[in-house]
Design goal:
heterodimer; A: 263 residues; alpha/beta; Glutathione S-transferase Yfyf (Class Pi), Chain A, domain 2; Rossmann fold; 4-stranded parallel sheet; globular; B: 445 residues; mainly alpha; Fumarate Reductase Iron-sulfur Protein, Chain B, domain 2
Amino acid sequence: MSDELKVPTMADYMAEGKQPEVLFWVGSAGSFDDRAKKITKAFVKILNKANVDFAVLGTEESCTGDVAKRAGNEFLFQMQALMNIEVLNAYEVKKIVTCDPHSFNCLKNEYPSLGGNYEVVHHTQFIQDLIASGRLEVEGELYKGKRITFHDPCYLGRANNEYDAPRTVLESTKANIVEMKRHKLNALCCGAGGAQMFKEPEKGDMDINVLRTEDALKTKPNIIATGCPYCNTMMTDGIKAKEKEKDVAVLDIAELIANNENL
Amino acid sequence: MQYLPNMIFAIILIIAIGFFVKNVKKLIRNIKLGLDVDVSDNKSQRLRNMTMIAFGQSKMVRRPIAGFLHAIVYVGFIVINIEVIEIIIDGLFGTHRVFAFLGTFYDVLIGSFEVFALLVLVAVIVFWIRRNIIKLKRFWKNEMTSWPKNDANYILYFEMVLMCLFLIMNAVDQTIQIMPGTPENHYVEAGSYPISQFLVPLFQGFNFESAVIVERAAWWLHIVGILIFLNYLYYSKHLHILLAFPNTYFGSLKPKGQVNNLEAVTKEVKMMMDPSVDPFAAAPEGAEEEVPAKFGASDVQDLSWVQLLSAYTCTECGRCTSSCPANLTGKKLSPRKVMMDTRDRLEEVGKNIDANNGVFKDDGKQLLGDYISHEELWACTTCNACVEECPISINPLSIILEMRRYLVMEQSAAPSELNNMMSNIENNGAPWPYNQMDRLNWKNE
């Protein structure tokens, strides 16, 4: 097992007069949600293992405002965005990585016209690059031959056309990747987007996450892989609703890689 | 008297085209009720999108069966319309098969029209079966009330009848062409008839006069039918055959996840955050009194003209609704209904303007509430499945978000859980009630 996590802040770097290679945007879920915090830590372990010079904003980070925007509150979104942009620009941030596709989409597509121009990547893209450039070697065989199905997050997939990075990273574990009938372009939402995460669903016949979990279970998976903290929560709840938590694990791609490498 | 048919034809043609132009003008006026939006950028990319998506049908084939059948009807429609040019010239000048002089090329043309006519007929019959016998789910959702269902079937009947008339016309024509002793042969021997030759036996017993009557009847019904169909477009979902082109051209070029930032809000937020701004300062001399902006949309006039164009373009195929996670789990939301409602309300506003000398008179109704309910809007997960599915670049999500903006920023009418979430963000920078100072605690847990 690894030593203590190294998580320097931008303020630390600034004090030393240095710039990290990338800013890790932890996001509200990654900071506060118990399940998502594990994903955050898994990703940090990967960054530490690959000797990536990264920093977080720590207490200077605030909600991107994405969820407020999707709920219709453009005021609150822009207030959050402009405050964050002030901080990010003050630190002269160039590149941002995040485990949350919603933050990813918002920072990448909606911050530029407000004055925040950064290269923004999703953690699955970042890990893919680490592997491709030889900075991270995936050698473990924990998941070799295991049936893993990947649930595409809407804001990584359809919203930003990234379908390959998560799959390429999964392939590095030599797992048996099985696709759901609805995948990539046709993937079904987990039900959390558009601020649904924070409210009860409207009246209907069933919950969206249960329907999506049924999609996943049809592939007879050992593991459902996710790339979004909200999808993770929704799929985990779906698995509980189907009483399958003993048979099927729901894990983020960062966790899969960290576990695989015994980090 | 010799020119009577030509004159009647010319009059019918002028009336039909005049009426169509009148409706197109109304259509353009209604679309222009929307807010202005700059879509003058990236002309080459836009042209490419239109060529690929509308002309090339690239997104139709994502559902292979419907895509294939649609391609047949689409190509058939374009090809057979070349024949309409000949029909119009013949009608106006009293000629018959004026392009017959093209010889072999003419044979090839008529031959391929016939093949397509048959293929279209078969495709349209399959479409009818899918709708009415197999009852594909997406054609039977709640918003498919009597008119949308009838409209779809009327279009199919129209096409069946037109294709049959075309083939009958050709069948009788070739019978007449080879009749021995046909006096003053107006019916030149021309064309090849790979399909309608099989219908010839039906007319074998006919003498010249009765054959001509049948041929003329089929000819007139065919062209009048086409002109009626042309004028039916405006009242029908079938308008997509024209509007799919501009709609794919003006469709968004941004990543689907990107939602526009409201400039009016930026101005206000920047003022709020700027300590040097004096909120009580008088407006500078000569500055125009600023009209307080309305945030979001409660009615069609608050949407952009591209969104209104999309509403008229929607052909109610329901691919969006059949992939919507909210709709699939029994919620009220249907992206197709959002588009249909927007169009129906826009038509209502247009009629209101017509009835009141060109000015809209408040009718106490609006798109939000009277057509689209809050429940529908709050069921959306913004997953973009509907946007991805639409074969002609319609974006129902953008309308849903504009209406949410109105609900939240103008009416503070968000569900209470969302209000809690938003006040958390306002107070402590996270959607949950945790202190911003605890944001890095995970490191040591």
